[in-house]
Write a structure and sequence with these properties.
Strand order of the largest sheet: 5-4-22-21-20-6
CATH architecture of the domain at 167-418: 3-Layer(aba) Sandwich
Number of strands: 26
Largest sheet: 6 strands, mixed
Helix content: 25-40%
Mean pLDDT: 93
Structural class: alpha/beta
Distance between the termini: 55 Å
Shape: globular
CATH class of the domain at 167-418: Alpha Beta
CATH topology of the domain at 167-418: Dimethylsulfoxide Reductase, domain 2
Length: about 700
């Protein structure tokens, strides 16, 4: 292709190749210059992609450094030093691929035949979910990757409940008042750093968008914000509830939205559940007729739905969900929250008022698809720093409620749900649940394992029905095996592009001892790291600049597949992740099961012509081709030329895709999950039920 962005990058002649970055989990399109003698000497952002719009962060530019890193794994390696530990030389010796596969398959199969629960996978290639879910093919539900610790263990389920999405972000296209709490969106981190930086910079230049950053440290984002609000660590929830106190008690809410588009009017009984009739339909209170009616009563007008008050329905005392939250907020005045957060009460009150004023409650906008919908150009954004702790679900919910109160959910300028990968261009991500409510989807990466006692998984995921990915619990269980009644001990770790030694929290010396107790560890990786130091066998994977893929990972504002293609042939004796895990699957006798997993995870089942034959091994090129075809029907030659199929998000999927449903202001499912878990623990006579924090399940 011709150079789409002429740059004096080299005196050498060569060619430009369109591809996709993989220096983080997100997928910015890039263009890569390769000289005539095969040397990669420049990477730039692809200006044709409306997501990163020609921009690329320093991490993306560093892909050249990793590609030519002299310490790259160049061939399969076997450990000869039985001693393991940080800084201990493994004394690697090179071996053939056949020997490496033979050793690895033999050691995995030994534990697999004894008990699949003895395998502890740590597979964290987020751009290749079909690798991530390989353990399902061997009947294993354990995991040891670090994502839930350093990512959004509570953030993702709450997005699923409120937006039916995996991620969230503010709408920089229209937003004028942007709060960042514990995140660097638009400056350094979270979703698509290069893309969001571009969108946020444009909003500040074109419209003077105000940015308020709330966090303990003066980070890059805080330094560049219009206002930095220092806060005591781990008190972010209290700041948000202080804001909500002001919004509710000063009448600064979008009451039309709350009545029409949320379950805030639904009546809640003393047990925390909605009050229902014999057919499980939920009651509301009609303030005009001064009586209870069912939520779908044709005589109801949304403006007459009571949000406040205390009532009795069929002898049951009840109050609207909005009143429930208002009662909670009674103890959350800015003065009280100042005592917790150290943020002055006047600051909390001022920001809440500025936020509500900027939201322009009551205004509408006509967008390009002809719909006239609410305009709410103010939004509260957050991520890991603000919620990565105990009570993370409640903290996430407190942030969401600030947004819900001003009616900005999934509306221009507001707080948006961001899907992980729509799979097909026509796929929508929302569905209606019971009683007109949006169907909550807290487990976007798949259902949690079934609860059992004794437990069948080392990470206890089945014990946290509203959580996701808590790998640090592996150590807790390992150290308290008798307490948890564990009947197995993992002794094999299968690791791919994951570094739990570096990433997972907890006492480092105990994690090191945990790894030393493993009988066998295999690592699939590109370069040495803290985890590979503990490996017995290294299966070297080819670099991102040598492999194929098609990926869409949480892009705010845009949708579509970003295509990765080799810029050069592998420069060492390495293989793609697909080659490695297909070979292991065949040697372990689970090839058919693995292809079934891929068909399910990547959505190939939706189009029979794309389904993988169960008895075949496929290359990364063949799987990338199918992912492109699934999205828009374009074959691989089209993607090789264009590099991506990214467009701005279709408006009906981006703005209020749930129109006609009610959002979950009050999450009754929290109580259902709590009581369901308690019932299972009681039925199985789980001894530690008395210690379990059921009180943390708050609606």
């Amino acid at each position: 292709m011709t150079n789409p962005s002429p740059t004096a990058n080299s005196l050498k002649s060569g060619r430009w190749v369109r591809s996709t970055c993989k220096m983080c989990l997100h997928s910015c399109s890039n263009i890569i210059h390769v000289t005539d003698d095969g040397i990669i000497n420049k990477i730039e952002g692809d200006p044709s992609n409306p997501s990163n719009n020609g921009k690329l962060c320093p991490k993306g530019n560093s892909a050249i450094m990793r590609h030519y890193d002299p310490k790259r794994f160049k061939e399969p390696l076997k450990r000869t030093n039985p001693e393991k530990g940080p800084g201990v030389d493994p004394k690697w010796v090179p071996i053939s691929w056949d020997e490496a596969f033979e050793i690895t398959a033999r050691e995995i199969k030994k534990s697999l035949d004894e008990d699949p629960r003895k395998i502890l996978p740590s597979l964290e290639d987020f751009q290749k979910m079909h690798i991530w879910f390989w353990p399902l093919a061997i009947g294993c539900h354990n995991f040891y990757q670090s994502g839930g610790t350093m990512c959004g263990g509570a953030y993702h389920p709450m997005n699923g409940y409120i937006h039916s999405s995996f991620g969230c972000a503010n709408d920089a296209k229209y937003c004028n008042y942007w709060i960042n709490n514990g995140t660097g969106d638009g400056f350094s981190s979270h979703l698509h750093a290069a893309a969001q930086s571009n969108w946020v910079a444009k909003a500040r230049i074109d419209r003077g968008m105000r940015v308020v950053s709330v966090e303990p440290r003066l980070s890059i984002g805080s330094a560049k914000a219009d206002e930095w609000v220092p806060i005591r660590p781990a008190t972010d929830r209290h700041f948000a509830m202080g804001m909500s106190h002001v919004l509710v008690n000063e009448g600064l809410c979008d009451f039309v939205f709350l009545r029409k588009d949320t379950n805030a009017p639904y009546l809640v009984g003393p047990d925390g559940y909605f009050v229902r009739d014999d057919n499980k339909q939920i009651y509301v209170w009609d303030s005009k007729d001064d009586c209870a009616k069912l939520w779908n009563d044709p005589t109801l007008a949304s403006e007459n739905l009571a949000l406040e008050g205390n009532y009795t329905v069929n002898g049951v005392a009840c109050r609207p969900a909005f009143q429930v939250y208002k009662d909670i907020l009674a103890d959350c005045s800015p003065e009280e929250m100042e005592k917790v957060t150290t943020v002055p009460a006047d600051t909390i009150r001022r920001i809440a008022r500025e936020f509500a004023k900027a939201a322009q409650i009551g205004t509408n906008i006509t967008i390009e698809d002809g719909r006239t919908i609410p305009l709410r150009p103010a939004a509260y954004n957050y991520y890991r720093g603000a919620q990565g702790r105990k009570l993370g679900a409640q903290t996430n919910q407190a942030f969401k409620l600030v947004n819900i109160l001003i009616g900005n959910i999934d509306t221009p300028g507001g707080h948006m749900g961001v899907t992980i990968d729509d799979g097909q261009v026509d796929n929508n991500h929302v569905a209606m649940g019971e009683c007109g409510q949006l169907l909550g989807t807290p487990h976007q990466l798949g259902h949690m394992p079934e609860f059992a006692y004794p437990t069948n998984e080392y990470h206890l995921a089945s014990h946290f029905p509203n959580g996701v990915n808590a790998p640090h619990l592996n150590l807790l269980v390992h150290q308290n095996r008798e307490y948890f009644g564990v009947e197995f001990t993992p002794d094999v770790i299968v690791n791919c592009h994951s570094n739990p030694v570096w990433s997972i929290q907890g006492p480092r010396e105990k994690w090191i001892q945990f790894l030393k107790e493993m009988r066998f560890i295999v690592c699939v990786d590109v370069v040495p790291n803290e985890m590979t130091d503990f490996a017995d066998v290294i299966l070297p994977s080819s670099d991102v600049l040598e492999t194929w893929n098609c990926t869409m990972i949480e892009p705010p504002h845009t949708e579509g597949q970003c295509f990765r293609q080799p810029v050069t042939e592998p420069i060492y004796n390495t293989k793609s992740e697909e080659e490695i895990f297909y070979e292991l699957s065949e040697r372990l006798g689970v090839l058919e099961a693995y292809n079934s997993v891929i068909n399910m995870i990547l959505g190939f089942e939706q189009k029979p012509e794309l389904k993988l034959d169960l008895d075949k091994k496929y290359t990364d090129r063949e799987i990338a081709r199918r992912k492109g075809l699934l999205w828009n029907g374009k074959d691989i030659d089209w993607y090789m030329e264009h590099g991506h199929s990214v467009t701005e998000r279709r408006l009906d999927k981006w703005y209020r895709p749930w129109e006609g449903m009610r959002l979950n202001f009050y999450i009754e499912d929290m109580l259902k999950e709590r009581d369901g878990l308690k019932a299972k623990m009681e039925a199985m006579k789980t001894p530690y039920i008395k210690d379990w924090p059921f009180e943390d399940f708050q609606p």
